[in-house]
Amino acid sequence: MFKINIKFYISVIVSKIVMKLSKTFFKGGSNFPGKVALKLDENILKTLGKDYKVILITGTNGKTTTTSMIYNMLKDSSRKVITNHTGANMLPGIVSCFVENFKFNDNYTGEKYAVIEIDEANVKFVTEFITPEIITITNLFRDQLDRYGEVYTTLLKILEGVEKSPFSTLVLNGDESLLGDLPVPNERVYYGLNFPLQDSESLDNNADSKFCKKCKSPYTYNFITYNHLGDYLCESCGYKRPPLKYKVDDIKDLSREGSVVTIDEKEIYINQPGIYNIYNALCAYSIGRELGLDKDIISATLKNQKSSFGRQEEIKIDEKEVKIILVKNPAGYDQAINTVSLDDRKINLVTMLNDNYADGRDISWIWDVKFENLSSLNVEKIMISGERLYDMAIRLKIAGLPEEDFSLCENYDTLLDGIKGCESNVVYVLATYTAMINFRKYLHSKNYIDKLW
């Protein structure tokens, strides 16, 4: 026992020193300190997390925004809470979060919460040491095909972690057909939308989960929200959407600023635009209620929710209003385009495509994105950047966008000049993960962003 304690304390001290040096000299420190801590004590997370009620948020899209919403709900409810706000969602980043918030002389005896965004393939590494209060899965879309494969593979990776934590409550998207009737003993709570958002009841050719996970027959739908999400039914074997405990019964307004929805007969304003943010907010609402938080506090939090870290984040570049939107797969990109479409002003577009490990090496997914829908917008200029800018330029040309409006920006200086030179003041930046990270670092170096992380 003595040796274990010594190993733990040495690990924490060294990790905190590394974290301090990383933040001071490299403006980072979200992953490497955790790697150091794990090297010195591979079981460190078991000790760091033992006093927390942990909420894990995983799934393909919406993790960071949903995590931020839940964190703010708990904070607004005067609960002691921590989170990995940088989005470092693999095991080392999660360990870094707990190390950063660890105090040797902490005498707090009340409830403490940790709201943790986690990469789908890393759930099993965390549940090895921690039993979360709640595990939520937001959705399952094709993403980073070279790393995850198809959606069924992603689900299996998550379930490897869930199986290690049978006493965790699962809060699941009921409109996600892959999440019904899971082969685990956990208590399950489902949320979803309770009305159609479009006239069509048939799936798009590029939808991610078309066939029944039980018998492989095609699904029929009472309604579809987007991609393969909706009120599904397999007429061959009877598999269907489970009963919803929490649901959006109406969308009263959908604008470029946010949405007004009805949840549990309560009208709620969500200060984030787009259908996918309604799902994020409903997930956060469901978890808040499962944790016993007051409806009015939850509603107030969603009304005041700020955009974070490249997720509809607004930045001022001189007089230009620049909004950065992370895009990383066809389902998310289509929803980003639909959200931009809510803006009826004259706009400018920036598309940034990288193919680093964190983005996914395979960029063939851009051919499944409905870029054709951009042609209906009032677009002044299209600036194309990133490591695969020429691939994106070809895709946009094939989509029918006028190439005379294209501006190919091979570096950030050229891109910044292009943004400054736009006639209209509204600029949407649609960027893959590392492109978003690196562009934010560049803007930080130019003093357009105060807080890098």
Automatic annotation (TrEMBL):
What InterPro entries does UniProt report for this protein, alphabetically? Answer: Folylpolyglutamate_synth_CS, Lipid_II_synth_MurT, Mur_ligase_cen, MurT_C
- State where Zn(2+) binds: C212, C215, C234, C237
Q: Name one GO molecular function term.
A: ligase activity
Function, in words: The lipid II isoglutaminyl synthase complex catalyzes the formation of alpha-D-isoglutamine in the cell wall lipid II stem peptide. The MurT subunit catalyzes the ATP-dependent amidation of D-glutamate residue of lipid II, converting it to an isoglutamine residue.
UniProt-listed PANTHER family: LIPID II ISOGLUTAMINYL SYNTHASE (GLUTAMINE-HYDROLYZING) SUBUNIT MURT, MUR LIGASE FAMILY MEMBER
- Alphabetical list of HAMAP family matching this protein: Lipid_II_synth_MurT
Could you tell me what this protein is called? Lipid II isoglutaminyl synthase (glutamine-hydrolyzing) subunit MurT
